[in-house]
Description:
Blueprint: E1 2-7, E2 13-17, H1 22-31, E3 39-42, H2 48-59, E4 63-67, E5 70-74, H3 85-90, H4 97-105, E6 107-111, H5 124-132, E7 136-140, E8 143-147, E9 155-157, H6 163-173, E10 179-183, H7 189-200, E11 204-206, E12 212-216, E13 224-227, H8 232-244, E14 248-252, H9 260-268, E15 272-276, E16 279-283, E17 293-295, H10 307-314, E18 320-324, H11 334-340, E19 344-348, E20 351-355, E21 364-366, H12 370-382, E22 386-390, H13 393-396, H14 402-408, E23 412-417
Parallel strand pairs: 2-14, 3-13, 9-10, 17-18, 21-22
Antiparallel strand pairs: 1-22, 1-23, 3-5, 4-5, 6-8, 7-8, 10-12, 11-12, 14-16, 15-16, 18-20, 19-20
Uridine-diphosphate-N-acetylglucosamine binds near residues 23 and 164.
Amino acid sequence: MAKYIITGGKRLEGTVRVTGAKNSILPILAATLLTTKEVVINDCPGLVDIEKVLGILRAVGCKVKQEGSTLIIDPSTITTCIIPDKYVKEIRSSIIFLGAMIARTGKARVTYPGGCEIGQRPINLHLSGLKKLGTDINDSHGYIECEGSNLIGADIHLDYPSVGATENIILAATAAHGYTIIRNAAKEPEISDLQAFINAIGGRVSGAGTSTIVVEGRRPMYGTEYTIIPDRIVAGTYLTAGVITGGEVLVENVILDHIQPIIAKLRESGAIIKASGTSIHIKGRERPLPIYHTTTLPYPGFPTDMQAQLMSLLSVSSGTSVLVETIFENRFKHVPELIRMGANIRIDGKTAVIQGVERLKGARVSSWDLRGGAALVLAGLRAEGQTVVENIHHIDRGYECLQSSLKKLGADIDRVEDQQ
Ligand code: UD1
């Protein structure tokens, strides 16, 4: 088990470049199954989650090559429609292979993904959407077996704009006869990226970024070379790292539009932000201002994936802030850890009331999930003395070389690989 050892109090200064978005790469890797031609994907960071998805592609028979941050996938050679249990258990978002595999082979089998660190995470919307397209779903003994060799386009209204369900339905609908309309679809930028990729290989998807998406099925598919959009959550995390240390950071390779909800909150905290093209310069105050109210919401609302990092910032603000988590039911696991560092936070159901303290104190804390772990690193950068963040394998799922990037910005942070 690896850990970070951070000596806080260093003001971050310098430039950091954001890599491709993990949450785009995962569905796009699944979407490579829609074609039989070679696909080249650029700007893929070395993340544990991406390694696992590449493991799935290899396990179903695809040829995968990695050249730096470029992935070359030859999906012509797939041999099975079964997604191995091992991967589904390790990476919940592998459920996205259901839609892609049905589109490619007319059938798919996965083990039930179950809940995870941040909540129950049901997949009812994924399954009901696939059923509406004509997939026969047999759900027994912990497995989901799908038969969908003759899918027909349908008009599907999602009860909730689920990101994963929207992606799964788009993927399956590429093989359906006629048109599929997805209403109340998720509007996240990663959906637009999936649309752009599918269109680049010959598909015809429109409407991503709005709540109505239309997919024309059964188009001939080709190969392509594609570059992933920058990761808005990684960008938000580095911007927050600048602000929490009262520093001055230039974050490069950002799509400004995608991070407006995050920038709006950092501005409320008193940070001075200047955007120029694909770079954002941020300067934090010595002590951030409190933010009266923040609620996590589907895009373009404030992202749940930034809730924990914002909470670290608010814990050292000069007043009282309220943060409401509406997306996942179990996403406050970082709170007891922040309290160990001296934060003053009260939780009541979905609501956290954060009374800013003048200083956090270094402590031994544990990360319980990906973004919660990143939040503890941010708190450690600000805290007095030494913070040890344990269980950082969670952080490795979503941040490439977090430690070396922060070190380049002037942080005192080391990674220690513990012997078991
Ligand atoms: C994706 C992101 C994750 C982000 C989340 C919300 C990926 C790989 N992960 O997760 O980082 O935090 O969007 O922005 O892209 N729900 C149902 N039934 C379903 C599906 C979802 O009730 O069938 C509920 C979930 O329990 C949750 C809410 O809908 O409460 C949002 O989930 P969803 O948008 O599906 O998130 P993911 O796609 O799993």
